[in-house]
């Protein structure tokens, strides 16, 4: 192994010493590694004692019963993974566990933007989610006692239809799949399902392992949910059960506090809470492929109340005409923008 490779990966070891035994095992792995690299794994015993046999597991799944192996990470998802070794020696066994972070292979592309159109937006709307469908914008608003779902006219910002939530709920992200509108709540661990045309509530659903309800979108087959962490959860649209998750990482770090999300041309666009930034995420493995700086867009809105944050928090996409819309909490405008590589 070259010095350069060692410096990048800085091998670390988990040492386990048997009580009353002169046996010290090391599970040698990198702490972080990019997915275009090969992962080298091996176990050593410091005092030269014999290892009878061992089994390596990655996230609980057996990957090898041979020591000193190399595996490809090409099709792995990013984020934290558990690597363990079950070691058999002297009629007994021990388990060693290391956590490894799989990172993106390249840094994200940086984007700026161009404003194509500007439309009015209701300044009373504490925007939590935004969706475009058949010429209209559908919006979810937050704050207890003020939360709602609403249908608005794109060109005028007029609220055409509204359904308010019980004051005990803090409304969060929405998405539209087929003829239903799905809405999250923040910390109540419950979501609502409505008929898209009438806004009649059809059903509710509970969260699983995801911590909270933040953003919601869909890929046509599954709902995709953010929970305020780096994780994006994929839900079965029939049972609303969480099936799996991916984690959003660059080539150096994770992106936490993922909030409003939108599925666009096979990618997940995510706003980061309290940042006027959108990141573009690979929907298969979690790679952050792009970062969009929208600070200058926020400068274009009127901010009369110094107590309000006026942060970006609304992403919608017109798939037919390939138009991207963004707005924010209590913004007086909704913008149609075009992304430009910097």
Mind telling me the CATH superfamily name of the largest domain?
YVTN repeat-like/Quinoprotein amine dehydrogenase
- The average pLDDT score comes to 90
Helix content: under 10%
| Strand runs, count | 29
Strand fraction equals: over 45%
State the CATH architecture of the largest domain.
Answer: 7 Propeller
Biggest beta sheet summary: 8 strands, mixed
How many structural domains in the coordinates?
Answer: 2
Structural class: mainly beta
| Outline | elongated
Q: Would you state the CATH class of the largest domain?
A: Mainly Beta
Cα Rg:
24 Å
Distance between the termini: 37 Å
Low-pLDDT runs: 1-20
Number of helices: 2
Which fold does the CATH topology of the largest domain refer to? Methylamine Dehydrogenase, Chain H
Give the strand order, joined by hyphens, for the main sheet. Answer: 23-24-25-26-10-29-28-27
Please outline what is shown here.
The chain folds into two domains: 3-103, Immunoglobulins (Immunoglobulin-like, Sandwich); 109-341, Methylamine Dehydrogenase, Chain H (7 Propeller). The chain is 3% helix and 55% strand.
Topology, element by element:
Elements: H1 3-9, E1 12-17, E2 24-29, E3 32-34, E4 38-45, E5 53-58, E6 61-64, E7 69-72, E8 79-89, E9 92-103, E10 109-120, E11 127-133, E12 136-141, E13 148-153, E14 159-164, E15 171-177, E16 180-185, E17 190-195, E18 201-206, E19 216-218, E20 223-226, E21 231-235, E22 242-247, E23 258-264, E24 267-272, E25 277-282, E26 288-293, H2 295-298, E27 312-318, E28 323-328, E29 333-341
Parallel strand pairs: 3-9, 10-26
Antiparallel strand pairs: 1-2, 2-4, 4-7, 5-6, 5-8, 8-9, 10-29, 11-12, 12-13, 13-14, 15-16, 16-17, 17-18, 19-20, 20-21, 21-22, 23-24, 24-25, 25-26, 27-28, 28-29
